[in-house]
Design a protein that fits this description.
Elements: H1 6-14, H2 17-35, H3 46-59, H4 66-100, H5 103-106, H6 113-116, H7 120-142, H8 145-156, H9 160-184, H10 189-196, H11 201-235, H12 243-252, H13 256-283
Length: 284
């Protein structure tokens, strides 16, 4: 009996997937609209328009007095410092866990096949470290930095330090996940060439693997630093210092013109960080 070719059957089996996916997406979209109580009509109701108009008119003109601007210099600097140290801690967490969580570095690929062949115990230990690293990365990034800040405020008290720890742990999980994907995507031909001339594992990594990953590594790290500047401002709302704490104070006092001034300062800070990041990426 002539056997059917699997390659001819597979496309027909998958032909219904786009329709099923589209139907499930539309269902989820409609259900989410209902459960999230989305009601754009609120903006056109009289009560909503009055509240929005009161907020917007209260923001202008922004408070640009020297007394207020001088008070914002220290929180602005604190925000940059929180984001910088938080990103450094995130790299310190994410880089080693990203290496251990890279399948082709930890358990497979040219760096491991020859070494682990015929060594089931060692391979099992490597898999244990691999799954442990992936699990920690998933745990760190699954909890928002806002929640981490709540916990660290309870642990170490108010101030910028819990903000640094919150960004470091949450962004460490994000960076480690992306680092592992960057390492997975490198071109393996240069690595095989290095191995063929007798290079050891460290030489293959530092001369073949890491140089390929470095541009994307730096680019994503700088992008996360930009995100950390914004996040550090938000974390101030839970007592983690920075501009967020000043935003909360001004909002509670209904000084919306001060809020606008702080938002302008935050915008200028993010724009400056974005400019520095772009210049750094251009040099790579």
């Amino acid at each position: 009996m002539k056997e059917s070719n699997p390659s001819l059957i597979r496309p027909s089996d998958k032909s219904f997937f786009p329709y099923i996916f589209t139907a499930l997406f539309v269902l989820a979209f409609v259900d989410s609209w209902r459960r999230a109580d989305i009601d754009p009509v609120v903006f056109f109701e009289k009560k909503g328009q009055e509240a929005l108009w009161k907020f917007l008119t209260g923001m202008f003109p922004p408070d640009v007095s020297w007394n207020f601007i001088s008070l914002m210099l220290r929180p602005a600097l604190e925000t940059i410092q929180i984001s910088l140290w938080g990103t450094l801690i995130a790299v310190a967490i994410g880089f080693p866990l990203g290496l251990l969580g890279t399948h082709t570095l930890a358990v497979r690929g040219i760096l491991n096949d020859a070494e682990l062949q015929g060594a089931p115990v060692r391979r099992g230990m490597r898999y244990g470290l691999y799954f442990l690293a992936r699990g920690l990365l998933s745990l760190f990034r699954s909890i928002p930095e806002f929640v981490w800040a709540f916990m660290f405020v309870r642990a170490v008290g108010l101030g910028p330090f819990p903000g640094v720890l919150a960004i470091g742990v949450a962004y460490g999980g994000m960076l480690g996940k992306v680092y592992s994907e960057i390492f997975e995507a490198v071109n393996y031909r240069p690595l095989e060439a290095l191995q063929s001339v007798g290079a050891n594992k460290l030489q293959i990594f530092f001369y073949g693997w890491f140089p390929q990953a470095l541009p994307n590594f730096v680019s994503y790290t700088l992008y996360r630093w930009e995100c950390a500047v914004r996040a550090s401002a938000i974390l101030g709302l839970v007592g983690a210092g920075g501009l967020g704490q000043q935003i909360e104070i001004s909002m509670r006092m209904f000084n919306f013109n001060e809020v606008l001034t702080i938002l302008i300062i935050l915008f200028m800070m993010v724009a400056a960080v974005d400019y520095i990041s772009a210049k750094t990426r251009a040099m790579l």
